[in-house]
């Protein structure tokens, strides 16, 4: 009898962990929509020098301030997650818990940066051809020449950094919560009494996160080999742009909750395929070739720039807002105002800017089956757009702003011209309905604990988690 109960207990603990993780991330997630809007409107093609700032110069410093403010939040999402998870999982958490998580994450991130040249190798010097290519590429897309290393243009790869993104922040938060629960009452000898109790936890967090950083840095090349070399080979050898787009969409979304999607992005965006710019220079990848407006020579056969970006527009402009509406409608009546505010801001951010984390992180950890459904739907959208010859691209993300700004270029590369680009809006409406119906049905039928909808099982499990 007891043996039969063990799997049930393990499932219950896993369920409890997922629910607590989801609840712990709600506060950090709440600040992301406004940060995303700040970043998007602060870009050079909006209020900056290449947008409205070209006519009203006073808007240029405003754009810089908005972008700086938004990026300060978006670039530190892993840190916010580390603090949120530590406070959410630690019993009797206080300011010391948050401080320990902050110190722990700074230590972890510092170790990753310092070990990057040793683990991943140092970059070689730029060739004359690469310098010329980069200068020419800057004529077609807005880039910071000094920040070229992060773009992967022209075959240039600067110092690659080991980065686990939000996954690293979550691991640090869980480790900090464990250290807090285990050692916050620890008594030290009289000579070291000042460091006893709560003060002891940040010290332990520093040491533990140093060791964690070393361990995760060592295994990082394995992730890189799987998701860059392996994914690149799979996409290229498929010799089918429709299938390759579907594979990329699926893998990219599945990696997002772990903060590793940037590894997959480098393959199609900056590596796969080449094209020739109007000046005769060689460019690499979907991103740079789209903005140069060149079809070039690519594998898989039949590939045209914009294949790996177009399919994201229907999801970000239609699908995820539909999911947000479903989660709002399925919330308990007493929780709807709170959930509605979160989902509305997330839907606006997704539709306008293409920043999807406020919605995706709301269910990625607490409702894993829903996230798998989401990943499959993203893959289907990528394949449909590729199959219909719809091409699209973005300088920021696949939101409404980039859709309008790049409409002409997308129409030029789409098989059916402007009709293909307009079809994105039709697909966005279709995916809005699909997401709403699928999420509503799954949430109610399986009683999934999305925001504002705790199940009795999750409430019992959460209460017993540390008993």
UniProtKB/TrEMBL annotation:
Entry keyword Mitochondrion: no
Which is an annotated GO molecular function term of this record? Answer: protein-N(PI)-phosphohistidine-sugar phosphotransferase activity
Q: Which GO terms describe its biological process?
A: phosphoenolpyruvate-dependent sugar phosphotransferase system
**Alphabetically ordered keywords of this record:** Cell membrane, Membrane, Phosphotransferase system, Sugar transport, Transmembrane, Transmembrane helix, Transport
Protein's membrane topology: Multi-pass membrane protein
Q: Which residues form the PTS EIIC type-1 domain?
A: 12-455
The places in or outside the cell where this protein is found are: Cell membrane
Q: Which spans are transmembrane here? A: 21-41, 161-180, 200-223, 308-327, 362-390, 411-438
Q: Which GO terms describe its cellular component?
A: plasma membrane
Q: What is its main location?
A: membrane
The protein in question is named PTS sugar transporter subunit IIA
Question: What is the species of this protein?
Answer: Winkia neuii
């Amino acid at each position: 009898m007891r043996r039969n109960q063990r799997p049930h207990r393990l499932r219950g603990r896993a369920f409890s962990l997922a629910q607590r993780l989801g609840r712990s991330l709600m506060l950090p997630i709440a600040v992301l929509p406004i940060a995303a809007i700040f970043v998007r409107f602060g870009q050079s093609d909006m209020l900056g020098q290449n947008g409205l700032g070209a006519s009203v110069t006073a808007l240029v410093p405003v754009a810089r301030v908005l972008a700086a403010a938004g990026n300060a939040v978006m670039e530190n999402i892993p840190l916010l997650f580390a603090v949120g998870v530590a406070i959410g999982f630690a019993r009797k958490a206080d300011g010391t818990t948050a401080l320990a998580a902050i110190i722990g994450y700074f230590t972890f991130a510092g170790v990753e940066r310092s070990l990057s040249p040793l683990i991943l190798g140092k970059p070689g010097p730029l060739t004359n051809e690469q310098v010329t290519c980069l200068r020419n590429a800057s004529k077609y897309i807005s880039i910071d020449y000094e920040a070229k290393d992060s773009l992967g243009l022209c075959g240039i790869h600067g110092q690659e950094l080991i980065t686990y993104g939000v996954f690293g922040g979550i691991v640090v938060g869980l480790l900090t919560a464990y250290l807090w629960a285990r050692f916050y009452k620890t008594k030290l000898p009289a000579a070291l009494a000042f460091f006893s109790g709560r003060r002891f936890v940040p010290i332990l967090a520093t040491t533990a996160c140093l060791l964690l950083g070393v361990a995760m840095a060592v295994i990082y090349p394995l992730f890189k080999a799987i998701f860059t070399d392996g994914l690149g080979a799979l996409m290229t050898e498929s010799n089918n742009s429709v299938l390759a787009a579907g594979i990329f969409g699926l893998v990219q979304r599945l990696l997002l909750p772990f903060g590793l999607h940037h590894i997959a992005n480098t393959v199609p965006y900056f590596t796969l395929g080449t094209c020739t710019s109007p000046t005769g220079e060689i460019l690499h990848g979907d991103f740079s070739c789209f903005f140069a407006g060149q079809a070039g020579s690519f594998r898989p056969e039949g590939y045209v720039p914009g294949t790996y970006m177009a399919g994201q527009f229907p999801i970000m402009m239609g699908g995820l807002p539909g999911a947000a509406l479903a989660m709002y409608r399925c919330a308990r009546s007493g929780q709807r105002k709170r959930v509605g505010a979160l989902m509305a801001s997330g839907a606006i951010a997704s539709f306008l800017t293409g920043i999807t984390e406020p919605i995706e992180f709301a269910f990625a950890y607490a409702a894993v089956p829903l996230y798998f459904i989401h990943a499959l739907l993203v893959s289907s959208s990528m394949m449909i757009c590729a199959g219909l010859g719809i091409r699209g691209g973005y300088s920021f993300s696949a939101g409404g702003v980039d859709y309008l700004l790049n409409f002409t270029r997308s129409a030029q590369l789409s098989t059916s011209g402007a009709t293909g680009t307009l079809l994105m809006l039709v697909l966005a409406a279709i995916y809005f309905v699909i997401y709403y119906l699928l999420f509503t049905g799954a949430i109610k039928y399986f009683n999934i604990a999305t925001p504002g909808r705790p199940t009795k099982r999750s409430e019992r499990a959460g209460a017993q988690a540390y008993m």
